[in-house]
Design goal:
The chain has 145 residues and is an alpha+beta fold. The chain has a single domain, classed as Immunoglobulin-like, CATH 2.60.40. Helices cover 17% and strands 36% of the residues. The strands form two sheets. Strands 1, 3, 4, 6, 7 and 8 form a six-stranded antiparallel sheet that branches. The protein has a four-stranded mixed sheet with strand order 5-2-9-10.
Length: 145
């Protein structure tokens, strides 16, 4: 009887760990959002929305080819960058690199993963695993009212 308790407890722990996300794993420094942001810098925040689909799978997030970190369901990454370049996201999802265009003439309609960055502020984006799209937070909030 005692061994059944241990088996049940072990099974519960293994299943719990298997289905729980680990959050974000950041590879670059996390900026202090309470400090004034320089005029030639911007802070980027990416929040992966919560969903059952793909919840146990992490997504690697890149800013113009630089690995920023990994996101699990309902987690965030936060980093500082210069504003001299257009922000183009790319991801590794399900072990496959999803490349974005680095269009020198920047056409948002041609590459929905590229955005102009506002200097001196926190630029917030939502990432949806099922569509693999990045959306500015204001646009996301309007779509989901």
């Amino acid at each position: 009887m005692k061994s059944l308790k241990y088996i049940g407890l072990s099974l519960a722990i293994v299943l719990g760990l298997g289905f729980s996300g680990c959050g974000a794993s950041q590879k670059v420094p996390v900026p202090d959002v309470n400090k004034v942001i320089a005029k030639d810098k911007a802070i980027i925040e990416v929040h992966r929305t919560s969903s059952f689909y793909g919840a146990a799978r992490a997504v690697d997030i890149y800013d113009n080819g630089i690995l920023i970190g990994s996101l699990d369901s309902d987690s965030k990454l936060l980093w500082e960058r210069g504003v001299d370049k257009i922000l183009c996201f790319s991801i590794t999802q399900d072990s496959a690199l999803t490349a974005t265009w680095l269009d020198p003439f920047f056409d948002r309609k041609r590459d929905p993963s590229c955005f102009e960055v506002k200097a001196g502020t926190v630029n917030k984006f939502k990432y949806n695993y099922s569509t693999a799209f990045f959306v500015p937070e204001e646009e996301f909030n309007k779509q989901n009212q």
